[in-house]
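Running this now, will post back.
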Amino acid sequence: MPYHYPDQLQFERLQTAYLSLDDVHAWSAFFAHPEAIRFLFINTLGLPTNEAVAHHMIQKQLERYAEHRYGLQKLVHRETGEFIGCCGLLLQEVDGQNEIEVGYHIFPAYWNQGYATEAARCFKDFTFNTNQAQRVISIIDDENQASIRVAEKNGMSLLKRTTWTNDEPVGVYGIYGS
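Update: finished.
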């Protein structure tokens, strides 16, 4: 079943836009921050540069858009127009079950300002308000306390523990719509 959501979703301080290959250079700066990528599984890509990783990840989102399988979108600060990160819905298979995940990646300069919580909440609300799914999850590395706090602020609780890419232990946090 194809899924789709529009870009230009408006949040309190942010709005979304579809990623494009024009964003590769700006997004590659994210991958230069060791703390920003600590909990991503990009080391398995084997790509030589941050620019190559950014290109690969944006290309993956473009394929998701084209196939109506959601995808991460660029987060733009409404007042400044700055690209502060990405957030969106991702179709994931967790232990043999299809799930809709809210995923987010915020540039370190914007950490601890509530942007991840705001963006994740808006995508969660979009999912429930448009009857896309009965449950939304976030797959979070067990050591990623900041993302666990974002999930909990959005009403999610730990549903189960499992392993993810490279057998990394993760928690699957989730919330059911009303």
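The longest strand covers residues 83-94. More later if anyone needs it.
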